[in-house]
Write a structure and sequence with these properties.
Helix content: 40-55%
EC number: 2.7.7.-, 2.7.7.108
Radius of gyration: 22 Å
Order of helices and strands: EEEHHEEEEEEHEEHHHEEHHHHHHHHHHE
Distance between the termini: 20 Å
Strand content: 5-15%
Structural class: alpha+beta
Protein name: Protein nucleotidyltransferase YdiU
Function: Nucleotidyltransferase involved in the post-translational modification of proteins. It can catalyze the addition of adenosine monophosphate (AMP) or uridine monophosphate (UMP) to a protein, resulting in modifications known as AMPylation and UMPylation.
Number of strands: 14
Cofactor: Mg(2+); Mn(2+)
Keywords: ATP-binding, Magnesium, Manganese, Metal-binding, Nucleotide-binding, Nucleotidyltransferase, Transferase
């Protein structure tokens, strides 16, 4: 790697020992076409000055990042998949390529891959990623970040020149390798693997590493106190993530325990969807025939997954203490749901009771009206300050109906939050930026047919404009 003066590499994960990973070799690809690089995140880790050629060397040929791992680590974990335990899991088409510290806040960040080739955990798969899958993940993470969801960041997408056979999209289809930035890849499933093997000493080491590395403020001298603080923190982080998903109208699709990060960061995007209208039963995965991971069941699923984490900690604590923490999940989730609702509407809190009543009335209205989900939050962002804009927009007829009157009165009773950017050009239009499945397919179609990336680029620009309007950091994408 060409030396960069600010890059601060790490090999922290290797200190956990090889019981939690396998050293692997990346696939060798016939082509390397840079399709996407995230310059904002590159600047935060000191890699923004890399040339495109250097970028490709690191993020599709996987030349080691100077000072980080000399060979990639395929992480070992287990997990409940659709609530059925699977001890054969692990990084099957990805690995931990490197680690570095965020130059802004000092956090340790992981460079994780998707589509980088076979590992001991590939279970007969080819270890590859379709280009469409990579495009979908870039779109998902960009949209979620703009909506204020704590998500992994799509860092790089490089097309790799192979023809892949897949059952869920027209084949052969183009291949790619994705690199994402995560604040840790320690999953509930990481703890589950150690518990499955009854390796209490390794559970203890993993717990202490996780606290020292990612949550140092939780350190307590007594082990039982560390366990309690850790489970409380993870429960709070996961509750907040669930609330953020619900207010983004987002359905993750595969909420298995190996897809829940203990730092509360949304990641690993497969069959995700955004709601067209408020539908608790809406699912993202065509194979989720029992609707286990439907939109409205996501909070219960997250709690179920947290219970599995608590089970892993039983050798280090007592059951009553852990159960008491889990009983607090509901209150934490509803507190976070109110906070997320206020953020989405740009309103100040009026106290827990009134905030909760607002949440209930919004859900009731969206369920009964079946108006476009994102349109409502676009229209009423800023509360009464946006009333003229909302009532002259495409949903004006719905807002004029009697069913909206009580909610309108409640919204008018909230003061707008400070620092809103209602004069931003984003709000001059009649409709919000959305990411419904038909839009995703429309973006992909010209890429597949004519290698035309213009709609993809336009959508990223639109997402950046939305992020700016809502006061979120824009992604400042740059592609080749």
């Amino acid at each position: 790697m060409t030396a960069t003066p600010h890059f601060k590499p790490s090999t922290a994960h290797a200190s956990l020992g090889d019981a939690l990973f396998d050293l692997v070799e990346p696939a060798v690809f016939p082509k390397h076409i840079l399709r996407y690089r995230n310059q904002v995140q590159a600047a935060r880790v000191g890699l923004d000055t890399l040339t495109d050629a250097e970028w490709v060397d690191h993020f599709s040929r996987f030349k080691p990042l100077q000072g980080s791992f000399p060979r990639p680590l395929a992480l070992r974990y287990h997990g409940h998949q659709f609530q059925n335990y699977n001890p054969e899991l692990g990084d099957g088409r990805g690995f931990l390529f490197g680690q570095a510290h965020d130059l802004v806040d000092g956090r340790l960040l992981d460079f994780g891959t998707k589509g980088s080739g076979r590992t001991p955990w590939s279970r007969g798969g080819d270890g590859k990623l379709t280009l469409k899958g990579g495009v979908r993940e870039v779109l998902a993470t960009s949209m979620l970040e703009a909506l204020g969801v704590y998500t992994s960041k799509s860092f790089s997408l490089i097309e790799t020149g192979e023809a892949l056979t897949r059952g869920d999209e027209p084949s052969p289809t183009r291949s790619a390798v994705l690199v994402r930035l995560n604040h840790s890849h320690i999953r509930i499933g990481t703890f589950q693997r150690l518990a499955y093997h009854q390796d209490t000493d390794s559970i203890r080491r993993l717990l202490d590493y996780t606290i020292r590395t990612y949550m140092p403020e939780l350190w307590r001298e007594a082990e039982a106190d560390r366990v309690l603080a850790f489970l409380e923190a993870v429960t709070a982080k996961v509750a907040r993530l669930g609330a953020e998903w619900m207010l983004a109208g987002f359905v993750h699709g595969v909420l298995n325990t190996d897809n829940i990060n203990v730092t509360g960061e949304s990641f690993d995007y497969g069959p995700w969807r955004f709601l067209p209208t408020y539908q608790p039963e809406f699912t993202a995965a065509y194979f989720d025939t029992g609707k286990l991971y439907a939109y409205g069941r996501q909070p219960d699923t997250l709690l179920w997954n947290l219970i599995r984490l608590a089970e892993c900690l039983l050798p280090l604590s007592d059951q009553a203490t852990l159960e008491a923490v889990l009983r607090g999940f509901g209150a934490l989730f509803y507190t976070e749901l109110s906070a997320a609702m206020l953020r989405r509407l740009g309103l100040r809190s009026q106290g827990p009771d009134i905030d909760t009543a607002l949440v209930q009335q919004v859900w009731q209205f969206l369920r009964e009206s079946q108006m476009p989900f994102e349109q409502f939050f676009f229209d009423w962002y800023g509360g009464s300050l946006s009333a003229d804009r909302a009532t002259s927009g495409p949903s004006a007829g719905i807002y004029a109906e009697a069913g909206f009157a009580s909610l309108r009165m409640m919204i008018d009773g909230f003061e707008p939050a400070a620092g809103l950017r209602l004069d931003h050009p984003y709000f001059a239009g009649h409709g919000p930026c959305t990411m419904l499945i038909d839009e995703v397919e429309a973006i992909w179609a010209p890429i597949a047919a004519d290698d035309d990336w213009s709609l993809f680029r336009q959508k990223l620009v639109a997402i950046d404009q939305m992020a700016e309007a809502y006061g979120m950091q824009t992604s400042n994408h740059r592609d080749s």
